[in-house]
Known about the structure:
Distance between the termini: 7 Å
CATH superfamily: Divalent-metal-dependent TIM barrel enzymes
Strand content: 15-25%
Amino acid sequence: MRSALTCSVTDAQALQRAVDLADEAGYAGLQLKQPQFALADGLRLGKLSPAGVVVYPGADYSMWDATIAGVTAFAERTGNRHVCLVFPAGAEGEGVDAVALRLNELGARLREDSFELSVHNHRNSIIESLDQLLRLRDRLDPGACGITFDTAHAYLGGIGDLAAAYRSLSSHVTNVHVKDLDASGRFVPLGRGVLGAAIPPLIRALGVTGYEGWIVVDDESDLSEFSLDQIVVEQLRYLERAGVR
């Protein structure tokens, strides 16, 4: 298991500071989100490895191919091979079966170019609850598209036992985003919210199943309330206490 950071910082100076802190703290990798792509030129990663890109393709499925084509061009240029597709909240018109078919087709094309695709569970979408995720799992070709399991969105989708949910999905999980939230649903640094006790059992379950992918601190905390040091360093220390090395 390797630790990586992804965050929502969209200011070039703040992003470089977050990357520097991650490098100094001991993270192994960095996942960039689509709004940060324009800031990537000149970004100094230090010892951090490219750990993938996170893309938000929107609710218009007909535009996914064009969006992904632009993303893979960026990924190729920056040495990223994993594409995490965040399933759009509020997308309508197609059920899990049809979406799985689209993802299998898209993932197969990406695989031909040596990319790996995963789909990220999201609240208020058709892959929100455990039942929906299991239905998706049964219809995805794991050689074409995996699952990014996000802890906070899983909780918001009614999944309380993160470790048990992961075990049921483990055959398809290729990327893990760990994120905490408070009782109001606001995202906060790991260990400061309602998932503080639920994430360590998930980490142990990842170890038991031999998971070898990235464990990504997916930070969406309010920078007006938390410092970059709290957002970057504090969360890695939490993961280390939970067993991530």
